[in-house]
Amino acid sequence: MAKIYCFVNSGAGTNWQFVLSVCECGATLAEHISSSENWAKHDIGLTSDWKHEHYQQHSTEKHQCEPFELEWVDDPANHQALRALDERLGQEKGA
After folding, report:
1. What's the pTM?
2. Which of 42, 45, 47, 75 is deepest in the core (most CB within 10 A)?
């Protein structure tokens, strides 16, 4: 099962929410600008079926598996899996 992390990446003090979905493999799968965190969850597919076709296609083609799991991340800077992914991708760029 492919794990897909969804989170707001706007920074503080903005009226708009820039939301991303990133697969555990490091691929950015979707981006959206929403008016609130609740709409961001909907627009990225956490509380709706938006983007699910795209997530399913990625999961099938890149991970040879059908299901995917979406996880909302409230604090991406301190999320263990996202930090490890960021570190791994940084090392790959430096190699």
Report:
1. 0.90
2. 45
